[in-house]
Amino acid sequence: MLEERAPLTRRERARQQVRQSILDAALEIAAREGWHAVTTRKIAEKIEYSLPTLYEHFKSKAAVLEELNRAGHRQLLAALRAARQRADTPAAGAREIALAYCAFAWQHRELYEVMHGLSGAPLERAAYLAEAEALLDEARAALEAWARSEGLQLRRLDDAVQILWASLHGIAALALARQLPGGKKRAAALAARGVEDLLSAWRNAGWV
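-> structure tokens emitted (208 positions)
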């Protein structure tokens, strides 16, 4: 049985609120001016705290971005899991993952940018490795479930996961950069079709 965690003290709640306000301010500045314009000084000014107070919570801009990166990966993982659970079949689950992935990129653009080093956001993969692996594990589980439902052999599952992930990220990144005709709606449709085409190709080959 899981041990219940003690309620947070008033001091702990206040500290959490300040940390969240710092993260929210960074996202707001990035949305307005781009990630290159995000500085600890601007964040402190926006939340009306001194720089020393900000540094009590985050030692640097890099630390702020690392926390946003981890938070973004956790949010995306929750969205993908929920999407797969809604599906009636493993094949539908893979398609729902594609749609949920795109929806996350559209709805949380600044988070998505910092998660992938887009639009001038510095990227340090070591800072979010565990969260990134959890996302790949979810994609792996979805493909494993689909392969079992089709009676297919699993020969190169990790390759299949990377192909799926690269396809979704490529479509999302191009759409965010406005380099796909038809906008986000068409991009989401392309992502769903791309997953369906991949599954069809693997089904015809008899293995993944």
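The two ends are 38 Å apart (CA to CA).
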